[in-house]
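I am writing to request your help with a piece of structural work I have in hand. I set the record out below, with my sincere thanks for your time.
___
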Amino acid sequence: MIRETIKSVLIGLLIGALTYLLILLSMGTTVVTSSNIISVLLMSAGIGLISVIFEFDWNYLWELLIHFLGTFFLVVLMCSYNGWLPTLYTHMFTSFLLFLVIYVLVWVALYVMQWIDAQRINKRIKYRNQKK
């Protein structure tokens, strides 16, 4: 369980860092502080930690809802820490839509990666079975 937790935190860090960099890229020139970076990394690690919930044998929709709400809470907390909430409140609908789009895109990317891994594993199994 500890190994899966560490793996989830690392994946969260990778996804969070990539997402943050892509958002910065799309915004153009902006000031980035070390405090911003640290808060994004902590938020990303937290989201990765919340992802451990998918290791349990609960109802998948409940797990997804808990993960979504936990992720949303961590994003709002990070935005609050960085003083970005006034901007989010001003553009509440757009901000939530952006959050939702990013959330869905990350899930699609993870799904595609898992599908590719499954295809590769199935191909190896089929090859080994043909050898016997």
Summary: The chain has one domain: 2-131. The chain has a mean pLDDT of 92. Residues 2-131 form one domain.
